[in-house]
Design goal:
The chain is an alpha+beta fold. The protein folds into two domains: 109 residues; 113 residues, Elongation Factor Tu (Ef-tu), domain 3. Helix content is 64%, strand content 13%. A six-stranded antiparallel beta barrel has the order 1-2-5-4-3-6. A hairpin with a 2-residue loop joins β3 and β4. α2 runs antiparallel to α3. It is rod-shaped, with a radius of gyration of 76 Å. It starts with 7 loop residues before the first helix and ends with a strand.
Length: 311
């Protein structure tokens, strides 16, 4: 069998076929279009080679006539396959670059995520600190509110005490005014009593002079008066003159009650005798008397009881 010499294009195709059949593409690289193009090409080349071997000289003319067309088709297919392979390689480089870029971005993103995690932890720590500070402030505010309530209660108590003191002061002012009125009235009464006492003293002096003149003439004044002794009389002390020496009083009994000059009355305070007075001046309804005896530590006061007897 006379094998025909293979055309150069076929040798080039056999030489180029392994390059297109086993491309070293990265994992996940898009090279599917190149594989689909190389597989029909290998089948066609194998069929042509078998035909050339089997047919021998019979098919030599046909093969020779078709070699030009086959070579042209094969060249075109190889050119397309190479172009696809170049595109695939470029795509592979782009994919690798993209993967590297994405890895870089992922690493950068991981750093940013770590930074964000740190910032989040810092913010959480700040929030915890602020929460503790807010809790402290809330407790302080509650304590302050409690103190304010206690202060308000104390102020209310002080306000009540102030109003009570004002009311008491007003009452004391009223009592003071009443006491002042009574003091003025007592001074007026004292003035009248002093005038009456002066008049009584003048009358007593006149009576004493008269009695002395009668006694110098040898007359018994008691007999002339027709008195056997004082009656059982009871009355009250009206006025006490502490400034006089000796002290004098005005009693509520007078001539209308049978009181006469020289009568002696006993003064009782709280039911106990404390003094004796002797009448020196008599008027119809009252009489002026001189304190002739006073118990130690005792003091004659207005409204003390006077009697002519002790029992």
């Amino acid at each position: 069998m006379n094998d025909a010499a293979e055309p150069d294009n076929v040798s080039e195709a056999r030489t180029a076929e392994p390059e297109t059949a086993t491309p070293s593409a990265p994992t996940g690289a898009p090279i599917a279009p190149v594989a689909r193009t190389a597989r029909p090409l290998r089948v066609g080349l194998a069929a042509a080679f078998v035909t050339a071997l089997v047919g021998g000289n019979v098919y030599q003319g046909v093969v020779t006539s078709q070699q030009g067309d086959l070579a042209a088709q094969l060249d075109a297919k190889l050119t397309g396959a190479l172009t696809d392979l170049q595109d695939a390689l470029r795509s592979r480089g782009e994919v690798a670059a993209e993967r590297e870029r994405l890895a870089t971005e992922l690493e950068s993103a991981g750093g940013r995520v770590g930074e964000l995690d740190r910032r989040v932890r810092d913010l959480e720590g700040d929030l915890d600190e602020k929460d503790r500070h807010a809790a402290t402030l809330a407790q302080q505010r509650e304590d302050m509110a409690t103190r304010l309530r206690e202060t308000a209660e104390r102020l209310d108590g002080l306000e009540e005490r102030r109003r009570a003191l004002e009311q008491r002061q007003a009452a004391l002012e009223r009592e003071k005014a009443e006491v002042e009125k009574e003091r003025v009235a007592l001074f007026d009464e004292l003035g009248e009593a002093k005038e009456a006492l002066d008049a009584a003293r003048r009358k007593v002096a006149d009576l004493d002079a008269l009695i002395a003149a009668i006694q110098r003439n040898g007359h018994n004044v008691e007999k002339l008066a027709g008195r056997a002794g004082p009656a059982r009389l009871e009355g009250r002390v009206l006025v006490v003159n502490d400034r006089a020496t000796p002290k004098t009083v005005i009693i509520s009994l007078g001539a209308d009650s049978g009181v006469d000059r020289g009568d002696v009355f006993h003064v009782f305070h709280g039911g106990a005798p404390i003094a004796r007075v002797e009448v020196r001046h008599v008027e119809p309804t009252r009489a002026g008397a001189l304190i002739v005896y006073l118990e130690d530590g005792a003091q004659v006061r207005p409204r003390d009881e006077v009697r002519t007897y002790l029992e």
